[in-house]
Design brief:
The complex is a heterodimer of chains A (408) and B (436). Chain A has 408 residues and is of the alpha+beta class. Chain A has two domains: 170 residues, no CATH class; 192 residues, no CATH class. Chain A is 49% helix and 17% strand. Chain A has eleven helices and 14 strands. In chain A, strands 3, 4, 5, 7, 8, 9 and 10 form a seven-stranded mixed β-sheet that branches. In chain A, strands 1, 2, 12, 13 and 14 form a five-stranded antiparallel β-sheet that branches. In chain A, strand 8 and strand 9 form a beta hairpin. In chain A, helix 2 runs antiparallel to helix 8 and helix 2 crosses helix 11. In chain B, helix 1 crosses helix 13. Classes of the chains: A alpha+beta (408), B alpha+beta (436). At the A-B interface, helix 2, strand 13, helix 8 and helix 10 of A face helix 2, strand 4, helix 8 and helix 11 of B. Chain B: Keywords: ATP-binding, Cell membrane, Membrane, Nucleotide-binding, Transmembrane, Transmembrane helix. Chain B: It is found in: Cell membrane. Chain B: This is ABC transporter ATP-binding protein. Chain B: Pfam families: FtsX (PF02687), MacB_PCD (PF12704).
Chain lengths: 408, 436
């Protein structure tokens, strides 16, 4: 296939060539970035929380009328007892927050009481001896809390745990050169002994800004005796719906002076996860839909313009056929023409894709796009161009040589 | 002439239904994607208080220092010590502190069941500063602030729930076991985004039920229900030590009516921070900010990144659709070169050809706009997929959006048609006639 006559012919269709190349370029720029965003969001959503999620239920309880710390302690003990006795409930504990909840607090943890000098930030989870089995956390070293190590903690009370359990990632950061078990760390201005290490426990937040320490969590042996408490309930997985429908009424039956919101007071962990990653999921779907429509629009545009060109050149095609060009020659001509235009488009589009990615990085703290995405996009669009132009080119190849003799 | 061109245009559009459908769909999809994302963007990025947004300021004082602050920026709220000190100094014509509180109230009709209710602890200037409209009664006064009275202003909606919408001024209401005196009922007022509390709460959450006297909340030791941000380790013990800690949780606002007042207040903040440095409380030189409403919303990144990204991508999509339309229009118009040649030979001027094809494009744009409108209406229900419910509910199809959709579709299509129509007008009649 000779390229120079194709290039020569293209000079007579500058506008159409520029339009198709531009469309290919813009489509490439947007589609590769969209695919990259989808991939990133899926990776985020795939992150394991470390929690055995099926069969886990969360109840948010607010005590009415600001009871005193001692009162809350007995109310909470009664609640835990009631919940544990419910049919279908395997275990339960009370805490300030839980993974993916998007609430709670974080703190510096390090090797000295000087608070400006910490090794890592860590999420603070108040826990008791039932936490590990309720959440289904995997203890890889050391031991669980004992019941007698759990203390009550009133509003704004000083937090100074004697013992803590940390995640493997946090342990590695605190003691990179050996086991952290039995060593001390400062999460308050007093030392705490690390008695256990769990494999994995995600922090409550899923924001990108906290991704650097997303696996650095610490379990503290406290019952947080404040007005708002979350009960985490481990049920038999098949009974979770049943427990979820009964739990609110069961708790109200023991004590009325509380608020468990009908709307979101009781949530399964599946709902918690869906809520935490809602915007990621939505973003992935939006980008997917836009990409599909975009590719379809671009293909349709190529079909439209190529059909127009074929219609315009029927006479020339007839002449070429009459002079001995085969159908394959004509088909090849249009396919090659399209390939040349698309190649110009993808070169420009590759640059645009990187430019758009740089802009997104600057505006939204996105990561740098992997070159694979641009290359895959280039291949996809070249193929798309060939597929789109095939039908008009096929029709062109079937223009009979006799067309050359007709006047219109 | 216009109707004649329109007839010609419609006839020509009918001649290639495929090509026409392609163009209409491209415009329709493009404009609806842009409009759906724009409706969300418009809702989250608007000016919530246009009449005063340049007179209301958030003073910020860095009480964390360069080692612990957020990349050199002072925290977005004040700790108790600084907040109270700024209020005592009273260097602005109006000023208030704000923090969100969550209390429980009896459910109307059943005294034994409780529901939680959210509001803001504020000072008397809050109401005139933010132009809060009143249905009944009034705000409390500055002297009530001093007296630490148990005064409360209810929202219209909360008053409806608790008192059936009656004038409740002077009545008592019990929240979390404490009695409050209703001094006023605010007419429905919920600026979006809720600029005055964005640091602590979601900027688009449910509207507050009440505004309660801040000093009274402090006396009852009622904690913030919103954000409380501390640096370093947990070293305080109990309410009083918490108040003295570096935890920031109080949102300050000041009203400054002229640029000279703004300059003066800035100097005052500098001097205050310098005093704290001299007193040994801060080990760093003054680091203060004074931002007005729009500057503050930008700093707090109130517009969710999803909204910007989706608007940017949708706009890019629309541009591609337009490029596509230019190509298709070009193909369509140039196919009729012979017809144009005849019209030109019969005396039509270039301008007339130009006008004819622009009108035809306008018809395509209108059809695309109508399709876009249908798709936009359908897509609005999908907004909830991407955004939190409180943001999704802000996006809706109103008259201005309908008008904008149609206008954008038509104008964009006509703009896209400039070049194809120009090419059509350039057709040489002699050439076309000769080849026939």
């Amino acid at each position: 296939m000779q390229i120079s006559p194709i290039l020569a012919a293209l000079r007579y269709h500058k506008a159409g060539v520029v339009l198709i190349a531009m469309q290919i370029a813009l489509t490439l720029a947007i589609v590769c970035n969209a695919m990259f965003i989808i991939h990133q969001r899926l990776v985020r959503m795939d992150k394991p929380s470390g929690v055995e999620e099926s069969g886990l239920l969360v109840v948010k309880n607010e005590w009415a009328g600001k009871p005193a710390t001692g009162q809350i302690a007995s109310l909470m003990a009664a609640d835990l007892d009631t919940l544990r006795k419910m049919p279908g409930v395997a275990n339960v504990y009370a805490t300030n927050t839980y993974p993916l909840s998007n609430g709670g607090f974080a703190n510096g943890i390090g090797h000295s009481p000087d608070k400006r000098n910490y090794v890592s930030v860590t999420a603070v989870y108040f826990s008791d001896e039932n936490t590990l089995s309720t959440l289904g956390l995997k203890l890889v070293e050391g031991r669980n809390f004992n019941a007698d190590e759990i203390n009550g903690l009133g509003d704004n009370d000083k937090i100074a745990p004697a013992v803590i359990i940390v995640t493997r990632e946090l342990a590695r950061r605190l003691y990179p050169d050996g086991s952290a078990l039995g060593k001390t760390a400062y999460i308050s201005n007093e030392p705490s002994i690390i008695i256990g290490i769990v494999d994995r426990l995600q922090i409550p937040w899923v924001d990108n800004s906290m991704a650097r320490w997303a696996d650095c969590s610490t379990l503290l042996p406290f019952r947080n005796l404040v007005t708002i408490t979350h009960y985490l309930i481990r049920t038999q997985p098949e009974e979770i719906e049943d427990v979820a429908t009964r739990v609110r009424a069961t708790l109200y039956a023991t004590q009325r002076l509380r608020v468990i919101r009908p709307k979101d007071g009781v949530k399964t962990f599946a709902q918690v996860r869906a809520a935490a990653y809602k915007s990621d999921r939505g973003m992935a779907i939006l980008m997917g839909v836009i990409s599909v429509i975009l590719v379809a629009t671009t293909a349709a545009g190529i079909v439209g313009l190529a059909s127009f060109w074929v219609g315009q050149r029927r006479k020339q095609i007839g002449v070429r056929r009459a002079l001995g060009a085969t159908r394959q020659d004509i088909l090849g001509y249009f396919l090659t023409e399209n390939l040349l235009i698309c190649m110009a488009g993808v070169v420009l589009g590759g640059l645009l894709a990187i430019g758009l990615n740089l802009w997104l990085m600057k505006q939204f703290e996105m990561e740098r796009i992997a070159p694979g995405y641009v290359l895959a996009g280039v291949a996809m669009l070249l193929l798309l161009g060939q597929c789109a132009v095939f039908a008009p080119a096929w029709r062109a190849s079937h223009v009979p040589p006799v067309e050359a003799t007709r006047s219109v | 002439m216009f109707t004649y061109y329109l007839q010609l245009g419609l006839r020509s559009l009918r001649r290639n239904p495929m090509l026409t459908a392609l163009m209409v769909m491209a415009i329709g999809f493009g404009v609806s994607a842009s409009m759906i994302t724009y409706s969300v963007f418009r809702a989250v990025s608007g000016n919530p208080i246009p009449e005063k947004s340049s007179q209301l300021f958030v003073p910020q004082v860095d009480n964390w220092g360069p080692q612990q602050n957020e990349k050199g920026e002072p925290p977005g709220a004040l700790d108790y010590i600084d907040a109270i000190a700024l209020m005592r100094a009273h260097q602005a014509s109006r000023q208030t502190l704000i923090y969100p509180v969550m209390l429980s109230s009896p459910q109307p009709g059943s005294s034994s069941t409780l529901v939680s209710t959210g509001g803001y602890a504020v000072m008397s200037d809050f109401f005139p500063m933010f132009n809060v409209p009143f249905l009944y009664g009034n705000a409390w006064t500055g002297s009530d602030d001093e007296k630490r009275a148990a005064d409360i202003v209810l929202s219209e909606e909360f008053n409806q729930r608790m008192f059936g919408g009656a004038n409740s001024v002077g009545k008592n209401i019990t929240l979390s076991g404490h009695d409050y005196r209703v001094v006023g009922v605010a007419k429905h007022w919920d600026p979006s985004p809720r600029f005055y509390a964005v640091w602590s709460d979601s900027a688009f959450s449910d509207s507050p039920d009440f505004y309660v006297l801040l000093n009274r909340m402090l006396d009852l030791q009622i904690d913030t229900s919103g954000r409380n941000s501390c640096r370093g380790r947990l070293e305080f013990n109990g309410w009083n030590q918490w108040l003295q800690s570096d935890c920031v949780w109080m949102m300050p606002w000041v009203e400054l009516d002229s640029s000279s007042e703004v300059a003066r207040y800035r100097q005052f903040l500098e001097a205050y921070a310098a005093d704290q440095q001299h007193a040994g409380r801060f080990a760093w030189s003054p680091n203060i900010r004074l931002r007005n409403v729009m500057g503050w919303l930008e700093e707090q990144k109130v517009v969710p990144p999803e909204s910007r990204i989706s608007l940017a991508v949708a706009s890019g999509f629309f541009i591609i659709c337009l490029v596509n339309t230019i190509g298709l229009l070009l193909a369509k118009f140039m196919r009729r070169a012979a017809e144009i040649g005849v019209r030109r030979a019969l005396g039509a001027t270039r301008h007339e050809i130009y006008a004819q094809y622009l009108v035809e494009a306008g018809a395509v744009g209108l059809a695309g706009g109508v399709l876009g409108l249908v798709l936009t209406a359908a897509g609005m229900s999908g907004v909830g997929l991407l955004f939190e419910p409180e943001i999704a509910k802000l996006a809706h199809l109103d008259v201005s959006l309908i008008g904008l959709t149609l206008m954008v579709a038509i104008l964009a299509t006509i703009a896209a048609a400039f070049y194809p129509a120009w090419r059509a007008a350039q057709v040489q009649p002699a050439w076309q006639l000769k080849s026939n």
